[in-house]
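User: Could you check the structure of this?
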Amino acid sequence: MRITENFNGNWLFRHGFDAARAGVVQEGETVRLPHSAVELPYNYFDETEYQKPFTYQKVLDWRPDFEGREVSLVFDAAMADSVVYLNGKEIIAHKDGYTPFTARLTPHLIEGENLITVKIDGSENPEIPPFGGQIDYLCYAGIYRDVWLKVASPVSIANVKIETPDALADAKTVTARVFLANPQGLAISGALDAKIRRKGGGDVAASSVAIDGNEATLTFSGLTGLELWDIDNPALYALSLKLTTAHGEDVVTQRFGFRTAQFTPDGFLLNGRPLKLRGLNRHQAWPHTGYAMGRRAQEKDADILKHDLACNIVRTSHYPQSKWFIERCDEIGLLCFEEIPGWQHIGGETWQQESIANVRRMIERDWNHPSIIIWGVRINESQDNHDFYAETNRLARELDPTRQTGGVRFITNSEMLEDVYTMNDFILGQEEMPGNNRGRVVLRDRVETTGITKPIPYMITEYNGHMYPTKRFDQEQRQAEHVTRHLLILNAVAGDSDISGSTGWCMFDYNTHKDFGSGDRVCYHGVLDMYRIPKFAAFAYASQGDPADKVVMQPVTFWARGERNIGGVLPLIILTNCDYVEVTFGEWPAKRVYPDKENYPHLAHPPVVLDLRSVTPEEFGTWGRVWREGTFTGYVDGKAVTTMTLPADPVPTTLEVVADDTALRAGEKDAVRVVVRVLDQCGNLLPYFEEPVSLVLSGPGRIIGPAEHTLKGGATGFWVEAGDEKGKLYLTVSTRRLLPQSITFTVS
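Assistant: Sure, the predicted structure tokens are below.
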């Protein structure tokens, strides 16, 4: 049977690479993967520190179970230009930094110690996408995803493509196209047995077929009583395959789901049902470690998008992302727009051939994920290139005719070679540009943008972002405008049947090259900061969720008399999914205010807006000299479901330290996020508390990044990473003015 083992531990790492010494064990730091070659500061760093070669080495001891078997290393990804050596001999070179590759060791293994050496070159090689031009994100060097040792029969299962051609029928069909690996070119005969199983156990169907070549197709028909995969019920099934030949047995299991997904000129259909897509773009980056975070952190981002931000789709900007992230999207019902690596620049012939290969690698890795509904086969925001994009589309359709293609652009009247015209629309915000006489336009007209008069499938793939970068600790009025811009576009998209949906730019702030961002190598484009702590704009998305799942009520204010220009807090936006809100200002009687359907008629849950339409200056104390406490109570179905009190005189009362979890796994480089906030006497964040906090951790683990933080806007975050040993981790967080707080983690 196949053996697949984690191969992440006990690598020797060093800066630089010497090909002449690839067969010699060199001195270095012992590290565990996933690993970032250089851990950068939060901001104001030099990104060229990782743009050079690095060496990873590990000894693989010969084992009796290698005899007569195929032995290989599977790299989930490494950034970027990778070369693998075995005992000094080059085995494979792989240039793409975002997709898996396999180093076949079998012909070169010796009985005894075998030295694996991996060269990782973080230089921005102009022949490798996305390099060659400017890039508004970082491509951190390192073996930043998992590596696996695979021991399999000489003939094994290489891949399987599962299709559900009649998913909406009562009696369903499954076809499985199975590809075999036969690197030695052996004669093949035998059988392939398959079962479809429900999640949690229970067989659905079985089938088998004789094998006489390197490919086989299985068909299951007449399947009844099966559930559809949907965003509210992401039902998954497992196809288990057993290959039996004279060369041995091999077993593989692959998850899949029954669903249909179609972009039409009248909107997007999931399982034949109209669904307005609402989501955000996501980079796979974290402070300090860059790309190198493990399974938990990847899954947590999907959970935040789905459960905290009420999104139903994510775009993997601008490259294929971790399998753990995609698998979590499958599990929780978060749709996914996946695209090939690139940012604006199209290189020469070698570059383009590598990009076309990226299309193949992306699709062949991910074609069984029900969450993925469209392939992005155009370089993000690039100019037209007919021959290049004709080929990326042709290949995508050949590999996977079950999904449509999209091509993200920001130029108008672009040639449409894809199935869906996907557009980055940044018109909102251009009213501030010199010479603009159009006023505040929220979205461009589809026909004006595309130059195509006939109805076509159309989706907005980016908006806002760099048009209005906003820090979590910016002044209240800027944050209120930030919120308004997101609301305006969400409302416009929701009300336009020509638009399938939108993904805003972007989920969270991210590190970038020196030519972008706010001068400190951070793009403050997110609705969350880099620690995934929400800005007010995050609640524009969260408030569109069902209150039965999570009640949301967030006034967009720091509740201070003199924070805004002129003074007061009106107009005051309250982001909520409640039916109405009762507001009490000091001793004034409670005022009931309903959602603003006048300005946001298409949102499922418009914000409640307090302005001169709903309150008078006198009853809200706008011009008074004495500031008062404010209380906001949200009602659903006539019942009070949430209350927030904003004190007139806030004082720091509590140092709140909250971990996403306290149970960690040893030997997996498992990391959990911790968020630190300073709260007032009513439990609200103090937005201008910016004193230092000290972090002390004891036990088998580490704090990622510095042990001293300065609070930004009253909060900060960090990740605690478990080591290789089991035990307890003791974290203490302290600040000068408040009582310290402690958390105990169990590492098992």
